[in-house]
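Standup notes, protein team

Yesterday: finished cleaning the Desulfoglaeba alkanexedens ALDC set.
Today: Cupin domain-containing protein structure.
Blockers: none.

Input for Cupin domain-containing protein:
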Amino acid sequence: MDRYRRLYETIIRQTDREDHRPWGFYEVLLDAPDHKVKRFTVYPGARLNYQRHFRRSKHWYVVSGEAVVTKNGEDIRLKAGQAVDLPAETWHRVRNPGPAHMVFIEVQTGDYFGEDDIERAEGDYGRA
């Protein structure tokens, strides 16, 4: 019984750190005054909202799967081990075109990381 309790507690701790969305989920790995690091998992066929930020830049590194990053209207295909930089004020989104979960690491740099520094142009989930 202790084995099941430990497993249950491990699952609960992991899920508490994850922020689940319709497209998948993310976990904040580091939150410092001048940078933030997140790990994203995007479900097959799903994509994030098309958006931009004014006070932060992003660096996306694909860990597994395939990604199509839209950067200012241009699609860029990435596979595991490849990355893209998204300077502040760049319109961007990511889509998972593959049959399995796609995972990427996001490093944000800037002077502010609040949710109110997001301008959405369009989205699939009613938040544009």
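Follow-up from PR in the comments: The first strand starts at residue 18 and ends at 21.
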